[in-house]
Specification:
alpha/beta; about 10% strand; six-stranded parallel beta sheet; about 300 residues; 11 helices; Rossmann fold; two-stranded parallel ribbon; globular
Length: about 300
């Protein structure tokens, strides 16, 4: 739990956050408040279906900046049309409202706009758009559409896999697997994957919103150096107090397993631009982020560390 503080801040802003009660929003809002900003939370519980909002301008009235986190993650039961409606249409409507209001907009995109895996070097901001599914295509199209809105002061962040308290998807499956002591066929992998702790991502968002030089820029962010999947499993085991049990298995066979396929691939990002241009460094180490995630997991899922 992040303590809420009020700091003296001559740059105090009123910041509207969509998806404030979601996975990322729960990390971001306390960080913004701790830096002395006023947060206006915009959630489905308050305003209903985002795609049905007739005019975003009254909802962001008086805001100096808008952070758009709300989105539909890729799920098999969501159509491509619905993904486009939410992940492309809503950001564009919000972007037009922000431009009309003179507010800055930070759009949370995804490294997936560049593709599902890296082969030679890490992705950076200059890497080509190569989205491979409906989710990534909608995010890429939203980025391009937002840049075409006249007068919009836009910043974009493209994170890799985000972990932290409340995480879902493959990372949660891996937590469960390591906590249960299941033998995992991952020991032979030599891939390289980047991750970002939700607290570090929240700090990067705050820095972008506060920095005038971030307007018009896109940034990739991560915790630091890339890690292999076996190294990740080992670190999760340390955080849980339950060492990971890994054994070797041919990676090309693992690629065929839907639940493990992506974990066998490399997906590495270079976040040098945000570190150079905004003097940003992650406030939390990879190990500290995993400890916080493990503490949440033990509390919420009844996991016990090994004795």
């Amino acid at each position: 739990m992040v303590e809420r503080l009020t700091l003296a801040n001559p740059m105090r802003m009123r910041i509207a956050v969509t998806g404030a009660s979601g996975f990322l929003g729960r990390s971001l809002c306390p960080v913004l408040q701790a830096r002395g900003h006023e947060v206006v939370a915009l959630d489905r519980g308050q305003i209903g279906d985002f795609t049905a909002v007739p005019d975003w301008r009254p909802l962001i009235a008086g805001a100096d900046a808008v952070v758009h986190l709300a989105a539909i993650a890729h799920r098999s039961n969501v159509t491509a049309a619905r993904l486009s409606e939410v992940n492309r249409g809503v950001p564009l409507a919000l972007g037009r409202a922000a431009a009309a209001a003179g507010a800055r907009l930070l759009f949370m995109s995804s490294v997936k706009v560049h593709g599902e895996q890296t082969h030679v070097g890490a992705f950076d901001e200059a890497s080509a758009y190569l989205p491979e599914d409906s989710y990534a295509r909608a995010k890429a199209e939203a980025e391009m559409g937002l840049r075409a809105i006249p007068g919009l002061k836009l910043s974009v962040i493209r994170p890799p896999l985000v972990y932290g308290p409340g995480v879902k998807g493959n990372f949660l499956l891996l937590l469960r697997a390591v906590a249960s002591g299941w033998p995992l066929p991952l020991a032979a992998l030599e891939n390289r994957r980047s991750f970002v702790y939700s607290g570090n991502l929240a700090d990067a968002v705050a820095r972008c919103v506060e920095s005038p030089q971030a307007a018009g820029r896109s940034y990739l962010v991560c915790d630091g150096r890339a890690r292999s999947t076996p190294e990740l499993c080992g670190a999760i085991g340390v955080a849980l107090g339950r060492p990971a049990r890994l054994f070797p298995f041919p990676a090309h066979w693992l690629d065929l397993a839907e639940s493990l396929g992506k974990l066998t691939q490399s997906l590495e990002v270079d976040d040098g631009a945000i570190r150079r241009e905004l003097a940003w460094t992650p406030p939390h180490s990879f190990e500290a982020g995993l400890r916080e995630t493990a503490a949440w997991f033990r509390t919420s899922h009844g996991a016990r560390s090994a004795r």
